[in-house]
Fold:
Amino acid sequence: MAGTVEPRLLRGLRDYFAADMHARQWIIDTIRGVYERYGYVPLGTPALEYLDILRGTAGEESEKQLFEVKGPDEERLGLRFDQTVPLARVVAQYPDLPRPFRRYQVSPAWRCDNPYEKRGRFREFIQFDIDAVGVESAVADVEMITAMCDTMQALNVGRFRVRVSSRRVLNLLLTYAGIAHDRAHDVFRVLDKLDKLGHEKVRLELTIGYKDESGSPIPGLGFSSAQVDRIDQFLALRAASREEALAQVRDLFKEVEGAAAEIELLARMSQQLHTLGYGDDVVAYDLTIARGLDYYTGTVFETLLLDLPDFGSVCGGGRYDDLVMRFLGERVPAVGTSVGVDRLLVALEQLGRLPSRKCTAQVLVTVFDDVPIDEYLAMAYELRRAGVPTEFYLGTERRFGKQVRYGDHYGVPVLVVCGADERARGEVQLKDMSVGRKRTAQVADRSQWKSERPGQFNVPRAELVAAIQKLLAEIAAGG
Structure:
C-alpha cells in the first residue's frame, strides 16, 4: 500500500471555510448591487490566456509575477493576473460589441509575488472590476470614482478616502524635471513605492540605488540630484482640498507646456464630484500616486481605509487608452476600477465589520432513536417545500446536547425537537437558539437554566411550518 501524502497548502493560498465564504459572498453581492445600479453588465473570461496575450501589457514587475502553464499541446499559457488584459482581448476579438462596452467581472486572478496575509495579499485572489471601454469623456472617470465611494459606503467599511492622480500630470513632472519620457515607466514604478518605502529610499532608487534589509542591492535609475530635487518639490506638495492641490501643481508647473489643460481637466472632474455630493472628505487629489501597472495612461485612483492606515489600497484603477490598441491596432479609450475582494475580506475582518454567518440552514431538525426517522424526514421536507432552508441531522450522535452543540457551532437559528413524549402529544418543540445563548450567558446555575428552558416552546405538529415561519420572522425583526 502506498504511503500517505502530507496534506499541505501552497504558499500564498488559503482555504475558505463557511464563515469566510459567506462573508466573501456578501462582499461580492454588495458590490454587484452597486455596479448593476450603475448599469454595468456581467462578463466572464477564462482563467487561462495565451502567454503572448498577457506579456508586454503591465510592466516588468507584473511579468515576473505571471504563473506560466504548459498546455497538453505544448501551448505557452498563463493564468490571468488581472481582469483588464482579458477584457482588452475580448474587445479586440469581438468587433460587434457595442461601444461603449460597460461590463463588470468577478473572478479569481493569480500573481506569483510575495504573499502578506495580514495585508490581504495572496497569490490567488478574487477581483471585482467595472470598466467602460470606448469612452473618451472624463465623466466616465468621475463615474468610476463615485462607484468606488458608493461601494465602500454600501460595504460599511467606516472611514475611507479615494485618492486620485493622473499619469498625464506625472508626465508633466518628467518634463519639469528634465527626464526623457521614455523613462516614464521606470520613474512611475519607483514613485508607486512611495508609501511602502518612504521618501529617502525612493530618492536613492531614483539616483544611486541602495541595499535593502536583506543586503540585496537595489539598483538606482541614475538620475542627477538636480533632477530628483525637482521631483522632490512635487512630492512635497500637501493640500487640504482638491482645489488647493490643483492650485499648488498649477503654480509648480506654470512654465511647463500643456500643464494648464491637464490641470483644468482635473478641476472640471473635481467640480462634478462636488456637485454630485462627493466632497474632499471622501475624494482627495494626491498627484504623487502613480499606480504600478504600465498600461495606465490618464487618471488613476485608489481607495484607502482610514481606520487601517497601513493596510494599503483595497480598490483602484485608472484610464488605459492604449491597451486595446495592442490587439486591435487602433486606439480605444477605456477606464476601469477593481476591488480586491479577498484583501477587503481581511481588512473588514480586522475592523470587525463583517457579518457573522456559518450556516445556510435556518432550521435544524434533530433526531432521536425512539421516533421513526421517516417522521423527521417528513418535517424537514415540509419546511423545505415551504421555502425554509432546513438541515436534517445526519450525524451518528443521538444525544440531544451534542446535536444542540452542532447547531450552535454553525449558528443555526432554530432547532426542531420531537422525542417520544412530544410525538405522543402530537407536538413538536421549537428552540430559538439566540434566546438560549443569551440566557446561558446570564445564568450560572445549570439547574435554573434547565427549569427555565429559555427560548423553547411547543406547538402542534400540524402547525410546524406556520410556527417556524412566524418565529423566523420574529428573529429577523429582532424580536
Remarks:
- The domain at 10-159+306-356 is CATH 3.30.930.10 (BirA Bifunctional Protein; domain 2).
